[in-house]
Amino acid sequence: MAKKSLDDLGDLAGKKVLVRVDFNVPLDKKTGAVKNDRRIRAALPTIRKLLAGGASVIAMSHLGRPEKATADDRKHLTMDNVAAKFGELLGVTVKKASDEVVGPAVSAAVAAMKPGDVILLENLRFDPREQKNDPAFAAAIAALGDAYVNDAFGTCHNDNDASMVAVPASLKAAGKPRAVGYLVAKELEIIDALMAAPKRPMIAIMGGAKVSDKIAFIQVLLQKVDKLLIGGKMTYAFLKARGVNIGATRIADEEVIAARPLLAEVGKQIVLPTDWVVAATGDLLKTQVCEGDIPAGFEGVDIGPTTTAVYAEEIKTAGTVIWNGPVGWFEQAAFARGTASIAEAMASCGAVTVVGGGETAEAVEQFLFDDKMTHVSTGGGAFLAYVEGKPFQSLAQID
Ligand code: 3PG
Ligand code: MG
Questions:
Q1: Whether residue 24 has its Cβ less than 6 Å from ligand 1
Q2: Do 155 and 22 touch, CB atoms closer than 8 A?
Q3: What is the pLDDT of residues 128-158, one digit of tens each?
Q4: For the whole model, what pTM was predicted?
Q5: CA 262 to chain CA mean position, Å
Q6: Residue 279: strand pairing partners
Q7: Closest to 247 in 3D by CA, of 292, 293, 302, 303
Q8: For 167-188, how does the pLDDT look when each residue is reduced to its tens digit (9 = 90+)?
Q9: DSSP state, residue 266
Q10: Cα atoms in the 13 Å half-sphere on the side-chain side of 41
């Protein structure tokens, strides 16, 4: 669905523009430093365009889940490190408006802004009203800006976040312009094209831990793709559902239950691995490749070499490849081979290649193939939800 974009907003010189970004970035657990700045870099074209047009920018984002964090972890969830990283990447000093998300100090900081200035609001989730889509909180934010831009693709599926829904609704009620930024426009355009008219054959590679989380996504994919190749931890839910012994691999019963109705497609649209790398629980250096039952005391950690070769061949002859979820425990170098090989095969094939999901994007970056993909989405849950065709309340606020 095409939405009003930044370029449709006209002259914004001298205007203050609220820009909802998704700077919910991974942080170093000890220092709180930004570990991966991809989501910040992805929003820069929008910010730069606004500044070049003579606007000033009030950027805002959530960071982590402070409502669930310990007091210690919460300290790292202020926007200070993110503001510094954002400023460094943008080449402009970015000030954090205040330690409060909204209030007199923020209003004063905004009133003093000049064209070309950028400020970042404090972590939106520090105010509990953010996740309640609270109208008074939204009105206070909306009052700061002359226009609103949603460039937070990764959060577009959150229907109850004030900054995503009630804030643009409040600007709409006041007759102020709203648009999607370049990142959101690009994500929507690529995923729309992917689902509407994919180059065939179209294959999807699904990994990650939980079948139960992705069941709706899998069901939509099965209506679209020619083949769905399974990897990652969810493999063992399928294996267990088929009566294969999965050794010491820990799979919750609900995962087996979720996999069961999909078994009818195995061998047709759904392709399961035929071999896997297993490691001894408690001694991860002890590994072996196996087919069939996993020996007692061992757990599955990666797809095996035969499966890797079969999947790489499928990728080579595909017209479109969608990938969501690592196929092995890639954070451990010894178990990264399957995931690295999938990334490499996708990087060197002639297909349209789209990667979605935070962990998968991280893997592709780790192996330095991100620039070789047609598109690496900044969305995790949002990517899945958009592919599933879920309507987003956030986008409904933009004409
Ligand atoms: C994400 O990373 O999924 C988005 O930033 C949304 O964050 P949330 O999952 O905590 O709502
Ligand atoms: Mg999420």
A1: yes
A2: yes
A3: 999 999 999 999 999 999 999 999 999 999 9
A4: 0.94
A5: 25
A6: 287, 299
A7: 293
A8: 999 999 999 999 999 999 999 9
A9: B
A10: 7
378: Cβ below 6 Å to ligand 1? Answer: no
* CA dist list (Å): 41 to 21, 23, 86: 11, 10, 8
The contacts of residue 156 (CB under 8 Å, 6+ apart) are 150, 164, 184, 379, 382, 386, 392, 394, 395
Give 290 Cα–ligand 2 centroid separation in angstroms. 34
How does pLDDT run across 83-120, given as a tens digit for each residue? 999 999 999 999 999 999 999 999 999 999 999 999 99
Pull the structure tokens for residue 163: 């900054």
Place of tokens 């990283």: 85
Residue nearest to ligand 1 atom 1, measured at CA: 154
Q: How much distance in Å is there from the Cα of 123 to the middle of ligand 2?
A: 16
Of 315, 311, 320, 313, which is closest to residue 375 (Cα–Cα)?
Answer: 320
Which residues are part of the catalytic machinery? 39, 210, 358, 381
In short, whether 75's Cβ falls inside 6 Å of ligand 1 is: no
Which ligand has an atom closest to residue 154 CA?
1
pLDDT, tens digit (0-9, with 9 covering 90-100), for 358-374: 899 999 999 999 999 99
- Residues in CB range of 225: below 8 A, 6 or more apart: 202, 203, 204, 269, 322
Closest CA to 169 of 197, 135, 128, 192: 135
Backbone angles phi, psi at 352, to 5 degrees: -75, 125
Cα Rg, the chain, nearest whole Å = 23
Q: Is the C-alpha dihedral spanning 362, 366, 367, 368 positive or negative?
A: positive
Q: For residue 311, what pLDDT band results from cuts at 50, 70 and 90?
A: very high
At 196, is the secondary structure helix, strand, or coil?
helix
Position 1 scores a pLDDT of 64
pLDDT at 2: 80
Which two structure tokens, joined as six digits, stand for 265? 């497609």
